[in-house]
Amino acid sequence: MHPAASPRISSTDSISPSRPRAHRDPRIFAAGALLVAAATGLVWAWHAEIGATLTSVTRLCLDWLQAAGPVLFFAGMAVLPAFGFPLLPFTLAAGPAFAGRMGVPAVALCAVAAVAVNVALSHWLAARALRPLVLRAVTRLGYRLPVLPPGTDWQTVFIVRLTPGPPFFVQSYLLGLIRTAWIPYMIGSVAVPSLYIIGVIVAGDALWSGQMKPALLAFGALGLVACVLKLWRTRRLRRTVVTPVDPSPSRL
Q1: Cα–Cα dist 217/43, whole Å
Q2: Is residue 35 part of a domain?
Q3: What does the alpha-carbon distance between residue 179 and residue 154 come to, in Å, rounded to a whole number?
Q4: Cα separation of 95 and 79, whole Å?
Q5: Among 46, 127, 217, 238, which is least packed by CB within 10 angstroms?
Q6: Residue 176 falls within a domain, yes or no?
C-alpha cells in the first residue's frame, strides 16, 4: 500500500486577503429620503383641516414678529442661540416674516450675518470667559481637555459641524474650548449652517406664499445637500486618525 500523497498547494493557489468592499452607509440615503418625504407630507397637510389651525397660529406669531421688526429679530438670532436657545425657530420664521418686506436675498444675508455674530460670541465665551470654570470642572472630575494635533483645525471644525445630534451652541462651545484656530472656526461655523439656513428661508417663504413647486424643490435641495455633506464627513472620518493628547499644565 502506498501512502496517500499529500495535496500540494502551489503559490498560485494561495489565498490572498480579500479587500473590504467600499460601501455607502444606507442611513445617509434613508435620511435624505425621509427629509423629502416629510417635506412632501408637510405640503399636503398644509391643505388639510389641520392646515387651517396651523396657519392661524403661525399667522399670529408672524404678526408679532413683524411688529417687533427685523432689527430685534436678527439681534435675537445673533445672541440667544449662544445661551442655548434653538436656532431653528429663527430660521423657519425669517422668510415668512420678513421676505415680503426685505426680499429673500436680504433676509438670507441678515440671517447669515446673525449666525456669524453668534458663533463669534460663542467662541469668545467658551475660549475666554467660561474656560476657567470649565477647566476647574473637568479637572475636578479627573479629566483634561484634549489638544488638537497641529494642522487639524479645518477638518475638526467641519467634522464637528457636520456631526448630527449635538445642538448648535454645544458644537460652538466645544470648538471654543479646544481652541480651534479663529479663521477655520469662523469660516466652517458660518459656511455649514448657511447652506441649511438659506435653503430653509427660501423653502419657508415659498411655502408660506403658496408656491408649492419652489418649496418642494428647496426641500429636495436641502436633502441633497445633507446627503453630500454626510458622505464627505464619512470619508473624512475614515481617513482621519483621532489622537487626543493630554495637555501639559502650562497649556491649561
Answers
A1: 12
A2: no
A3: 12
A4: 19
A5: 238
A6: yes
